[in-house]
């Protein structure tokens, strides 16, 4: 039996659940008899163990199970009877005062889903990102692909590709091999010495002062110079201090980039080496990536607009659950990167803001989908999977991957549903196009969706 629903806060409710002890005892005895049929004990045949021994061994656990079942059923019945949409799990606590004789009572405290008010979409301001792929972007991509296939030749040594020119000094783009030793106040420090250390000048792997001290040297030459470590340098022992480095240049290698020819095209998967086909293939791939990033930016703007025009209270229980999910995702990601996280603390407050936004958006999206019948249709899901498959060598394997697993297909359905919401909002809101430069769009901090 459950009492009337008490309102404790905007979303918090409480129900008192009362269960007759006679009902509990009757169910316990029933389950003990079932358990006795298969119970085992030394000196007794299976099913012949005395009931007192069965009760002593299993009674406590069975009584807990019965109590949980009775209270759980009473809570679910009360929630159904009162048309309550329970958010998260109830907190069940024993009640000690005003409990009728022959009964046990519990207080079930819980939150309900909020009422969601989505404002007038016609008042929402949304930025729709647009970007283009021009010949310049294709050329840049080809340069990147060439640099990924670079190989090096010793400067001054004659080879089939030349000797690197007449300048035998270290310059940006060269790979240099050096010995170096650093001191602070005349004392060598940990990590400040290395032999046969190789790096490419101009890539930014070394501090700027170190690279500047190397440029212009010839093989066999040495140079001593001061270097100031930044205050936020990762090495705490030297951060903010000035060291003196001596370097000796042992080898200079110049970068040989492959020519943009038929062999280069074949290395990119163009069987006949046709450069026109290569450029078109690169353009298609760039356009696919640009399209994904443009959609991600536009979606982010739509989500921001929906949050801005919607009114709702967010259940703390759902935020707590999402914080746990985010913490576990972070832990798994760090483990996959080879990091030991068993002893690493994860302050909940680091995830709270993100979790609150995710939950808020989830509730808003569910309301918009329900109110406007924007559920993902099977043909949309199929089309989305086929689109994914186009960027893989064997599209049929990708189709099989998704359609053979319901949980994977559910992920695609969620993406389609979000796209349905985005398109619906774009059709109603005040939309302003924003042109974004290719380099800005492709930067690492751009939204990825």
From TrEMBL:
GO terms for molecular function: peptidyl-prolyl cis-trans isomerase activity; protein folding chaperone; ribosome binding. It catalyses: [protein]-peptidylproline (omega=180) = [protein]-peptidylproline (omega=0). The keyword Isomerase applies. Keywords: Cell cycle, Cell division, Chaperone, Cytoplasm, Isomerase, Rotamase. It is found in: Cytoplasm. One of its GO terms (cellular component) is cytoplasm. Its EC number is 5.2.1.8. Residues 173-258 form the PPIase FKBP-type domain. This is Trigger factor. PANTHER family: TRIGGER FACTOR CHAPERONE AND PEPTIDYL-PROLYL CIS/TRANS ISOMERASE, TRIGGER FACTOR-LIKE PROTEIN TIG, CHLOROPLASTIC. Pfam families: FKBP_C, Trigger_C, Trigger_N. It is an enzyme of class 5 (isomerase). It comes from Oxalicibacterium faecigallinarum. InterPro entries: PPIase_dom_sf (IPR046357), PPIase_FKBP_dom (IPR001179), Trig_fac (IPR005215), Trigger_fac_C (IPR008880), Trigger_fac_C_sf (IPR037041), Trigger_fac_ribosome-bd_bac (IPR008881), Trigger_fac_ribosome-bd_sf (IPR036611), Trigger_fact/SurA_dom_sf (IPR027304).
């Amino acid at each position: 039996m459950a009492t009337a629903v008490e309102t404790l806060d905007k979303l918090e409710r409480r129900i008192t659940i009362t269960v007759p002890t006679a009902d509990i005892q009757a169910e316990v005895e029933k389950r003990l008899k079932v358990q006795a049929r298969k119970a085992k004990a030394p000196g007794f045949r299976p099913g012949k163990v005395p009931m007192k021994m069965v009760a002593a061994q299993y009674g406590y656990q069975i009584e807990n199970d019965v109590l949980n079942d009775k209270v759980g059923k009473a809570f679910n019945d009360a929630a159904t009877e009162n048309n309550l949409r329970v958010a998260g799990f109830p907190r069940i606590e024993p009640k000690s005062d005003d409990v009728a004789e022959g009964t046990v009572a519990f207080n079930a405290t819980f939150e309900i889903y909020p009422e969601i008010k989505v404002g007038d979409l016609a008042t929402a301001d949304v930025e729709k990102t647009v970007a283009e792929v021009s010949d310049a972007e294709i050329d840049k991509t080809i340069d990147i692909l060439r640099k990924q296939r670079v190989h090096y030749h010793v400067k001054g040594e004659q080879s089939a590709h030349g000797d690197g020119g007449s300048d035998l000094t270290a310059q940006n783009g060269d790979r240099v091999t050096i010995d170096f030793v650093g001191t602070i106040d005349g004392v060598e420090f940990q990590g400040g010495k290395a032999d046969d250390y190789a790096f490419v000048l101009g890539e930014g792997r070394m501090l700027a002062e170190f690279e500047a001290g190397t440029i212009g040297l010839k093989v066999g030459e040495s140079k001593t110079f001061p270097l100031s470590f930044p205050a936020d340098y990762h090495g705490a022992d030297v951060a903010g201090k000035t060291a003196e480095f001596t370097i000796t240049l042992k080898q200079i290698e110049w970068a040989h980039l492959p020519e943009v020819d038929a062999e280069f095209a074949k290395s990119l998967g163009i069987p006949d080496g046709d450069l026109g086909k290569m450029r078109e293939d690169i353009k298609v791939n760039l356009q696919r990536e640009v399209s994904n990033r443009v959609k991600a930016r536009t979606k982010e703007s739509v989500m921001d607009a929906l949050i801005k025009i919607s009114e709702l209270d967010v259940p703390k229980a759902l935020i707590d659950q999402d914080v746990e999910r985010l913490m576990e995702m972070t832990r798994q990601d760090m483990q996959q990167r080879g990091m030991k996280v068993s002893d690493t603390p994860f302050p909940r407050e680091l995830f709270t803001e993100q979790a609150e936004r995710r939950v808020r958006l989830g509730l808003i999206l569910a309301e918009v989908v329900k109110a406007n019948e924007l559920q993902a249709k099977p043909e949309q899901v199929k089309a989305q999977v086929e689109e994914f498959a186009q960027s893989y060598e064997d599209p049929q394997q990708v189709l099989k991957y998704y359609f053979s697993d319901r949980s994977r297909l559910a992920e695609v359905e969620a993406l389609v549903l979000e796209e349905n919401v985005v398109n619906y909002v774009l059709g109603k809101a005040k939309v302003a196009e924003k042109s974004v430069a290719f380099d800005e769009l492709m930067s690492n901090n751009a939204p990825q969706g």
